[in-house]
Design brief:
InterPro entries: DUF6653. The protein is an all-alpha fold. It has 10 helices and no strands. Helix 3 runs antiparallel to helix 5, helix 3 runs parallel beside helix 7 and helix 6 packs across helix 8.
């Protein structure tokens, strides 16, 4: 697989760019509590409605990276975390430091356990278990994002594709516009 062409279902280059938006990150981060609440409410609203609410949350998670514009500058922490995640997913093409990979796997595992705990807790309407699961999920996820920022910092010069993610295109229209005005004023 060529570098930079990471194949995830429905994720295009444009989707990856849009995923680096702060709007995309924070609205995805707020989706888990809504899904957990929907699961929790299965005893009140019934499985059909709870299932539809969960489905709406999953559709939102899939659609989200396609909705928001990419950030104007690619140097925000969430953009660097998304770039690091792409580098991590692309490690077969460009190897990454083993220690970072092992930590990322461990954090993903803890995050998954937290999610499982939150879902099981919500299914049983067990508040302490649900809260512990959500807290474990978010603690592991945000630690993972911080690790991805570190990975991006270490690997950004490892391949030309990675270097290109850090560049903001210059707006040469401003230069042409200014030059054009000067030419017009001289005539």
């Amino acid at each position: 697989m060529p570098v930079g062409q990471i194949k995830l279902p429905g994720m295009t280059e444009r989707s990856w760019e849009r995923q680096t938006s702060s709007w995309s990150l924070w609205s995805r981060a707020l989706t888990l509590p809504l899904i957990i609440i929907a699961i929790w409410l299965h005893t009140t609203i019934g499985w059909a409605w709870a299932g539809l609410l969960c489905l709406a949350g999953f559709i939102w998670l899939w659609t989200n990276p396609r909705l928001f514009n990419p950030p104007k500058r690619p140097n925000s922490w969430y953009a660097r975390a998304a770039f690091g995640e792409r580098i991590w997913l692309n490690q077969r093409a460009v190897p990454i430091p083993r220690q970072i990979n092992m930590r990322a796997i461990a954090l993903s595992f803890v995050s998954g356990l937290g999610l499982l705990c939150a879902v099981v807790g919500a299914l049983g309407n067990n508040l302490p278990m649900t809260v512990i699961g959500v807290v474990a999920f978010y603690a592991a996820k945000f630690t993972f994002l911080q690790l991805m920022i570190r990975l991006h910092a270490e690997m950004r010069n490892a391949h030309p594709v990675y270097k290109s993610w850090d560049r903001t295109p210059d707006n040469d229209n401003l230069v042409k516009s200014t030059r054009h005005k000067k030419v017009l004023s001289q005539n």
